[in-house]
Model the fold of this input.
Amino acid sequence: MTKMVRIENADTSAYKVLVQVWDKGYPEGEPDRLVEEVVLGHPTAMTGSNVFITSTRYLVVKEGV
Done:
């Protein structure tokens, strides 16, 4: 099942948030594949409708540069 998610940069500092969208490797044993990186560069910036998770897709959220 596909789950739409929304991530917001809720911090008021100058630090950015980086959201990575990954697909699990297929067939099993293959490396996972980076699909997209979304930079939330300012407070209140949010991911768009293209960020979702499934049984084979996951997100990594980390501090950007």
